[in-house]
Batch of 2 targets.
Target 1
Amino acid sequence: MTENRFIDYNPMKLDQEEMRSRASSFYEEMKTRRSIREFSEQTFHPEILENIIRTAGSAPSGANKQPWTFCVVTNPELKRKIRMAAEEEEHENYNGRMSDDWLRDLKPLGTNERKEFLENAPALIVVFKRIFEFIEDGKKHQNYYMSESVGIATGMLIAAIHHAGLCCLTHTPSPMNFLEKILDRPLNERAFLLIPVGLPAEDVLVPDIERKHIDDIRIHYI
Ligand code: IYR
């Protein structure tokens, strides 16, 4: 059994004014984030992505199991393989697997089965959730709340991408098990999200959509 070990926590210790100002400026920054489907091929320093992934890795997780792996794909051959496999699945999705309601809901976003961004974006981050860990003698040890944990980490990843001045798309070419095969992932990993990252193509357009008002997403019990 491992012993409990507690250490001092050093909170940020901000005054009310600083907190208000930081909450407000963080919101102002985050509300400018948009999903981008057309990327410039311009590359960026690998250290940027390293710190973005470190930020994601600082997320809370069930029993602190940190049940995630972030694969960074910049290899053109692998990006091409991923695009081909994703387009194959998306062809099926757009031609029968998605309901009419679903296709109608996607109309304003202008999506289709072509996924050029999977080759054009300088990097793809493939997020995997680890459903268990291999321990000694090939035995399995279960992880907990994997989807919640990896979802939180991915949210922090997306915020960090935006904060760094990069753009991304949360892409889900379902089913996504082709990613486990192409990237030769171990048996305990399941593809969770495919996130192309980079700078937007020049003059990129985004759908004219709005976010819900605070009064429609917050219910205050006083
Ligand atoms: N995975 C498909 C379809 C799609 C589904 C949802 I829900 C979206 O918000 C966007 C797209 C695609 O990526 O085209």
Note: Strands lie at 68-73, 123-130, 132-134, 140-142, 167-168, 189-198.
Target 2
Amino acid sequence: MPKLPDGSEKGLRGHAEERGVRARIGMAPRAGHIDRDAAYKRIATEEAWTFPDLVKAQLAYLDSGEAHDDSLRMAGMFASMPRLQDMLQDLGELRLAHMDEYGIDRQLLLLTSPGVQVVRPGEGTALARQANDIAADACARHPDRFSALAAFDPRDVPGSVTEIERAMATLGLNGAVLNSHFQGHYLDEAAYWPILEALEAHDAALYIHPTAPFNAPHYKDRGFFGALGGFPHDVWLHTMGLIFSGAFDRFPRLRLVIGHLGECLPLHLYRFDWMQDNADGVPGLRGGQPAVKLKHPVSHYFHHNIWITTSGVGWEPAIKFCMEVMGPERVLYAMDYPYQQSSDEVAAYDRLSISAEHKKMLMEGNARRVFNLPA
Ligand code: MN
């Protein structure tokens, strides 16, 4: 059993009282057995990695004091965890051993947060190229086990367009990943739309992965800049910003993937449509913004342009709800290795009470289609 960064083995912990609480709210018990003869492959679609030159560049930027960005402070925190770094930086034996232990057939590799977008300006695109070369090499060495998304630094728009094209056309990567805001900026700003155009042109799905919110003492001071608040909120903002900017009307074949069960967004589709209807075409109703008139209700974009993954949320009632409101073809399995890893969570997917057809879509088929993975 691999240990977590703090040396504990959280996946094995479980007091009787805790198990009782978990059972009451419909969570799977921790103790579980992975089906080694499952009728589906397990493709995990939000699996993190990094490499030494990137960590070095992030730490140099942090030490320079030039940037005030909590996502950079988060990079510093992760860099100080040697056991975590061992797992993040390994694209061979250690990672494959953990995949075998958990029954994961294929990992989709995403350059971990905050990625190349939080290094000194001017260094990001070269680091993206290096990242994509390393990832492509790992995929070539283990074609049956690894696929990867392309990194890019959106602060360099022409460089991003060129790198997305190279990663898709030359390296054969399977889409692109952005770790949400880039020092307080988002892709809904018109300056970055050539990147959206390139993603659409190359049929590259864009995975927007969380990072810590920019300069957010109100999160940090309460200990919420990570998965308990800042992460989902920042991707929430990025996704809703893209929708309300009209990006999907302008680029209707643009495909967006967000993790952690859609960062809670699917739960609110009803209210989004209601509020949009209320404010449609009315200037100022959303707080002084110009009037917005989208071609479709907000929920339309969740049914045509957006896919979600289950990273870190192996919880049956929530997964079933998302499959019901998004459609079973729009929900993909992810583990979130190495930040979350648990055989019990994998076993919970094996036990999900959904049809065999939907199970195979969740664990395997949807990922193949969204990321154009080999059969
Ligand atoms: Mn993740």
Note: Residues 46, 48, 209, 311, 336, 339 surround manganese (II) ion (CB under 6 Å).
